[in-house]
Design a protein that fits this description.
This protein has 164 residues and is mostly beta strands. It has three helices and 13 strands; from the N terminus they run ββαββββαβαββββββ.
Length: 164
C-alpha cells in the first residue's frame, strides 16, 4: 500500500456524553483498547490539540480533557471526534491495514475496469465489509476477504458477482 497522507488524522474515539459534574466525558472507542488511545500524549479533540487523562470506568472509558471543567462544556462535546495524526500510529506488518487507509481506494474488477471506490469500512463482528460506491452512484457492501476483495498495490480488486 502507498504511504498515507502525512496530514491525515484518524479517529480513535468519540465523545459519547458528559460524566459527572466536573467536565469528564464518556468515550466511545474505535481503537482496539484503552491503551491504544492513552499512549498518545496529545490528541485532537474537534480538531484542536488537547491532552487527555483517560481511565477505565464501570460503563466504559472516561476522559478528562484539558480546558473542559464543567458538565455543560463536556456535554457540548458530545459527538466530537478524538483523533491522532496518522503518522503517530504504530507501523503495520505485511497484510495489516488501518480501516481509514482503505477509504477512498478505487475498486477494480479482474479485467482492470473501474467498479467504484471504498467509502466506508464496517465490521459487525464477522469480519470487515467494504462499502463501495459504484459508478452508478449506488452503494454495496462486499466482504473484505481473499478472492472476493483483495488489497493489491493501494487498490481494491474485487469480484463484482458479490456486489448486490
Amino acid at each position: 500500500m502507498t504511504a498515507p497522507a502525512p496530514d491525515k488524522r484518524i479517529a480513535l474515539a468519540a465523545v459519547a456524553g458528559a460524566h459527572g459534574v466536573r467536565g469528564e466525558v464518556r468515550l466511545k472507542l474505535f481503537a482496539d483498547s484503552l491503551d491504544s488511545l492513552a499512549r498518545h500524549a496529545t490528541l485532537f479533540v474537534g480538531g484542536e490539540p488537547r491532552a487527555l487523562a483517560i481511565r477505565d470506568g464501570s460503563n466504559g472509558p472516561i476522559a478528562r480533557i484539558d480546558g473542559v471543567a464543567t458538565r455543560e462544556a463536556a456535554e457540548a462535546l458530545r459527538g466530537t471526534l478524538i483523533e491522532v495524526d496518522r503518522a503517530d500510529l504504530p507501523p503495520l506488518k505485511d497484510g495489516e491495514y488501518y480501516h481509514a487507509d482503505l477509504i477512498g481506494l478505487t475498486c477494480f474488477d479482474a479485467a482492470d475496469a473501474t467498479v467504484g471506490s471504498v467509502v466506508a469500512v464496517e465490521n459487525f463482528g464477522a469480519g470487515d465489509l467494504l462499502e463501495v460506491e459504484l459508478a452508478s452512484g449506488k452503494r454495496a457492501l462486499i466482504p473484505f476477504r481473499p478472492g472476493i476483495a483483495d488489497l493489491v498495490d493501494a487498490r481494491i480488486v474485487l469480484d463484482p458477482v458479490y456486489l448486490a
